[in-house]
Amino acid sequence: MKAKSIKGRSLNEIKTGLEKSISDGFKPTLAFVFLSVNQDRRSITALFDAEKISIYGITTHGEFIDEESEMGTIVILLLDLNKNYFHIYLEEYPEKNYREVAKRVALQAKEKFPRPAFFIGGSNIETDAEALLYGFEDAIGNDVNVFGGMAGDDFSFSEQFVFTNGKESNIGLVCIAFDEDKISINGKATCGWKPVGTERTVTKSIGNHVYTIDGIPALDITAKYGGIENLSEENEGLAMELATQFPLQLQKDFGDPVMRPALKIDWSDHSYYCSGSVPEGSKVRFSLPPDFDVMDKVIQNTIEVKKLKCLK
Question: Is 189 helix (H, G, I), strand (E, B) or coil?
Answer without folding.
Answer: coil
